[in-house]
């Protein structure tokens, strides 16, 4: 037998030499058994076990050996403690060479070190220790008072005495528990939050009302005895408006909407921060706004055949719409999502605020929008396409106005607060596509579609006839033009470095209106015309005055001025900024410095000092 | 006891039942669908109670 590795004590043995030998052998066996014990932890063993072990070593009878071992251990009672538990007798000792009661040291525990560190962090940093997440903001939730309590709300008497508790209506969804009713103390009248829904009260009903007739705000009578279909056919819009307003004004937001779909808020799964991060990374990686269906399949591996696919799709759209890092840029039937980090779509040469101001006349003075002169909105909707000539400004910046004709063609915003929609414009003639951003008009700014600069510059000229057509996918549109044999022209170009216009040789292969092509042949005096600053271009009369001064014919006489045909002025103004013909003439007719004749416009520049003041104002505007 | 038709507030009365229906339907519904259900709920509140 080998000795234990962490050597125990070597006690002194008592008794006869045979007892000393047996006691030592028993001790060694127990030290072997306690090789991994702490030194003060007792190791226990029965005499029978010790006898069996030693007898097997010596080849003798174990039973005869038990008495000798007991005597040897008793002779060394300072080393072995005899423990009799009533059923059996065991001897115990420790690696110290004597018996000691086991003691649990609680002076230095892990739990104590964790909660009572020697060097605790200052209280300012306690949040770092407790949690790394941002604590939830405390928000004051409005108190919702259900129909039940609103209808049951008691009326207080003069001294606050509750004098009336009306029995609840017997609606089937509110089962009244008698026990509950007894226990509930009538509360003081709670302030009833009444949504601005249509409150129907009929003090003087127009129709002789019976117990099932409701008089609507407009005075119409609704009889609930009629079928649901009949009620909906007659008063569906009233109900829709009331219901929509109630849902919007519900402080608890129990029903939520995305687009034209409604769902119970508590049934909508949530998206974690990790989910949002993965979705954003996916969209940025794709490099363009992605439809919700692609996000579901590529990020969540969801299949349209999944039972909860429709629900989860709604949840995805609803939750993303509430996140500031995502923007909904889709349309009805194609729910596209853009994310923070995606490159901007559209021209960067003009700010969106400047473009919005250029097209503000479409919203502020819609009677100057002549886009529906040649066709009607119904025709556009029926044919699902629209043809128009490009102006120089549209060609130069790749922009199309969101005028009445385009509103009839392009999709309306799906969400009330939606600002933009991304459309994919495909060119079947060149097997290419372009992402275009549709900017919806706001209160005082017009809307436009931009992002077509490369296509226009590469394949078209100002005056080209283009056709925008819908496809089966509501977010995909085709842009086509009539191809022709090549024609050379010295075309007006905008030199951004010099800030002036110049004519450059150009060959084009598209059908175009020659009157609208800003060519040297058409209007040579456009050469070297200055590119006005956005501030100068903002005011139509200023732009027109500048164009007349540059391009018009000097008009001698008592009052010197400049004269230009309406067609030429329209072309020249649309080099600098967008304007319809009716807007141009309508605005100039109200200006005292302009005289609008049948076929020409005459401009009488103000005296020099006024001009300098006006120019100064432009500089200030730009700043 | 029948519900008094004059106490009906469009967009409020019976809204709890509409929400309950929306929960159990377990999928988003159009405004037309929930309007039809809402009319049905109001009608049941008035007519069925009237019939009892």
Automatic annotation (TrEMBL), chain B:
Top-level taxonomic group: Bacteria
UniProt name for this protein: Uncharacterized protein
């Amino acid at each position: 037998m080998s000795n234990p590795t962490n050597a125990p004590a070597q006690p002194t043995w008592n008794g006869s030499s045979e007892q000393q030998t047996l006691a030592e052998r028993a001790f060694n066996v127990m030290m072997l058994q306690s090789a991994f014990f702490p030194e003060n932890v007792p190791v226990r063993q029965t005499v029978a076990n010790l006898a069996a072990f030693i007898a097997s070593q010596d080849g003798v009878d174990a039973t005869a050996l038990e008495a000798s071992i007991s005597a040897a251990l008793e002779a060394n009672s300072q080393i072995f403690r005899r423990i009799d538990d009533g059923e059996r007798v065991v001897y115990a000792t420790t690696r110290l060479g004597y018996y000691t009661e086991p003691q649990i040291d609680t002076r230095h525990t892990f739990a104590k070190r964790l909660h009572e560190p020697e060097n605790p962090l200052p209280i300012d940093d306690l949040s770092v220790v407790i949690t790394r997440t941002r604590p939830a903001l405390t928000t004051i939730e409005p108190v919702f008072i259900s129909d039940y309590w609103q209808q049951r709300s008691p009326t207080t008497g003069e001294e606050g005495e509750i004098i009336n508790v009306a029995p609840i209506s017997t609606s089937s969804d509110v089962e009244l528990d008698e026990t509950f009713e007894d226990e509930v103390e009538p509360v003081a009248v709670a302030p009833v939050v009444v949504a601005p829904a249509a409150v129907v009260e009929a003090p003087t009903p127009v129709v002789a009302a019976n117990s099932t007739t409701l008089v609507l705000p407009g005075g119409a009578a609704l009889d609930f005895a009629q079928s649901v279909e009949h009620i909906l056919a007659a008063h569906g819009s009233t109900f829709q408006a009331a219901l929509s307003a109630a849902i919007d004004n519900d402080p608890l937001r129990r029903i939520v909407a995305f687009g034209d779909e409604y769902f119970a808020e508590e049934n909508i799964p949530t998206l974690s921060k990790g989910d949002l991060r993965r979705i954003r990374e996916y969209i940025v990686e794709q490099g363009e706004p992605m439809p919700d269906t692609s996000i579901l399949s590529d990020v969540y591996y969801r299949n349209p055949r999944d039972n909860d696919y429709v629900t989860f799709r709604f949840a995805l759209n609803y939750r993303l719409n509430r996140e500031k890092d995502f923007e909904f840029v889709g349309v009805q039937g194609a729910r596209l999502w853009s994310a923070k980090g995606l490159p901007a779509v559209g021209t960067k040469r003009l700010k969106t605020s400047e473009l919005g101001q250029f097209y503000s006349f479409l919203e502020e003075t819609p009677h100057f929008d002549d886009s529906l002169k040649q066709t009607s909105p119904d025709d556009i909707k029926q044919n699902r396409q629209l043809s128009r000539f490009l102006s120089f400004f549209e060609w130069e910046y790749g922009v199309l106005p969101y005028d009445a004709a385009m509103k009839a063609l392009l999709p309306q915003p799906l969400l009330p607060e939606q600002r933009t929609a991304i459309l994919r414009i495909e060119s079947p003639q060149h097997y290419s596509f372009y992402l275009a951003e549709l900017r919806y008009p706001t209160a005082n700014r017009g809307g436009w579609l931009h992002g077509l600069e490369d296509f226009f510059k590469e394949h078209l000229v100002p005056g080209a006839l283009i056709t925008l057509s819908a496809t089966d996918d509501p977010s995909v549109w085709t842009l086509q033009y009539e191809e022709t044999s090549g024609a050379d022209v010295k075309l007006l170009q905008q030199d951004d470095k010099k800030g002036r216009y110049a004519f450059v040789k150009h060959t084009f292969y598209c059908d175009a209106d020659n009157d609208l092509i800003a060519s040297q042949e058409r209007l040579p005096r456009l050469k070297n015309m200055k590119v006005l600053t956005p501030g100068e271009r903002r005011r139509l009369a200023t732009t027109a005055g500048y164009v007349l001064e540059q391009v018009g014919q000097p008009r001698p006489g008592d009052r010197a001025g400049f004269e230009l045909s309406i067609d030429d002025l329209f072309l020249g103004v649309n080099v600098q900024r967008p304007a319809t013909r009716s807007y141009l003439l309508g605005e100039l007719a109200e200006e005292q410095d302009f005289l609008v004749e049948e076929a020409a416009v005459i401009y009488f520049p103000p005296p020099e000092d006024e001009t300098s003041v006006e120019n100064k104002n432009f500089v200030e505007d730009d700043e | 006891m029948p519900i008094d038709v004059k106490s009906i507030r469009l967009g409020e009365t019976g809204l709890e039942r509409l929400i309950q229906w929306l929960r159990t339907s377990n999928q988003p519904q159009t405004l037309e669908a929930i309007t039809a259900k809402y009319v049905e709920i109001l009608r049941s509140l008035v007519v069925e109670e009237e019939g009892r």
